[in-house]
Design brief:
The structure is a single chain. This protein is an alpha/beta fold. Helices cover about 40% and strands about 20% of the residues. Strands 3, 4, 5, 6, 9, 10, 11 and 12 form an 8-stranded mixed β-sheet that branches. The chain has a two-stranded antiparallel ribbon with strand order 1-2. It has a two-stranded parallel sheet with strand order 7-8. The relative contact order is 0.14.
């Protein structure tokens, strides 16, 4: 690295004298005494190896070398100012970085709206398609996931933010018998699940068939459904009934058990702005989703109830 032969104070004094016309006015602008400014200029000329001003004139006139250096000095000072602002913003920028994990059933319209609002407010948001264990293992500061009917660590808090509606989807000619589709028929046909690690409480709710195939990529799941390789429980906000060759089926389940709460899960203190972000999460979910759930903040050790009764439709107005 080439040795730097000047200081920021020297360049600042040089540019100020150029613009003020003499050392006295420059000293007042810089809030330095005249002797200090003069010495900064003299030392800069010694370090450069050539004169920057013709001192025989009043006001001071730049030499040819000084004119060229002034243009570079002004650019340098602009970069120095930008660097100073960047240094000041670093703590705030670090405090506004957030990693959010979400499970496959989280509404994408909600995630898009949340990411857009946080982006406009200067947050750096990483979105990870992972199950809730990512937050519990410290890989994310915030998780959006389906509620489980179990207790969680006392290191975490959770809040109900809304719900999802689940329905049965398959190829248009997959179920050819009587309507609605019976539980026996569902159990005897291959079921496609978009979850790799399915908690026991979710197995009891989502897993009906004995023949289970895990397909964690939604676009691939769509293709397998279209080709008649099984059926799937999917959230209605996926609009899977509009996918080519796929339809929604009425089943003997009716609506019982098909509404399920979504929760925000976070570790207090992991990020100084998390409480405010959780408020945004709940508001944006209500604005973008079909169902809302008024959820108070809970300290962990209380179960995240999965009963549909906890979900209320939004006001009509």
């Amino acid at each position: 690295m080439t040795q730097i032969r000047f200081t920021l104070a020297q360049i600042e004094a040089f540019a100020c004298v150029c613009e003020a016309g003499n050392i006295t006015r420059a000293a007042k602008r810089l809030k330095k005494d005249r002797t200090t400014v003069r010495e900064l200029l003299e030392y800069l000329e010694v370090d450069m190896g050539y004169p920057l001003f013709d001192r025989r004139t009043r006001p001071l006139q730049l030499t040819e070398e000084g004119q060229r250096l002034y243009r570079q000095a002004r650019l340098f000072l602009q970069e120095a100012e930008a660097f100073s602002l960047a240094i000041t913003d670093i703590p705030q920028q670090l405090g506004q970085k957030l990693t959010l994990c979400y499970d496959p059933f989280t509404p994408r319209d909600f995630l898009t709206a949340l990411a857009t609002e946080l982006h406009l407010q200067g947050f750096k948001l990483d979105l990870l398609l992972m199950e809730r264990e990512a937050a519990e293992e410290g890989l994310a500061e915030l998780a959006i996931c389906q509620a489980l009917n179990r207790s969680i660590s006392d290191k975490f808090k959770w809040r109900a933010i809304g719900s999802i509606e689940l329905a049965v989807f398959a190829a248009a000619d997959f179920f050819t018998g009587s309507k609605p589709v019976s539980l026996f028929t569902l159990a005897s046909c291959p079921q496609l699940l978009p979850f790799h690690h399915l908690p026991e409480s979710m197995k009891q709710r989502l897993q009906i068939a004995d023949n289970i195939r895990t397909v964690s990529e939604i676009s691939l799941l769509q293709r397998l459904l279209s080709s008649g390789q099984g059926w799937a429980f999917l959230p209605t906000h996926f609009a899977a009934g509009e996918w080519p060759h796929i339809r929604q089926y009425a089943t003997e389940l009716g609506q019982q058990g098909l509404l399920h709460p979504m929760v925000a899960l976070w570790k207090p203190g992991a990020c100084p702005v998390l409480n405010g972000i959780v408020e945004k999460v709940q508001r944006i979910y209500a604005e973008t989703g079909r169902y809302t759930a008024a959820g108070a903040e809970h300290q962990s050790n209380n179960p995240c109830s999965s009963k549909p009764a906890a979900v209320s439709p939004p006001d009509a107005g």
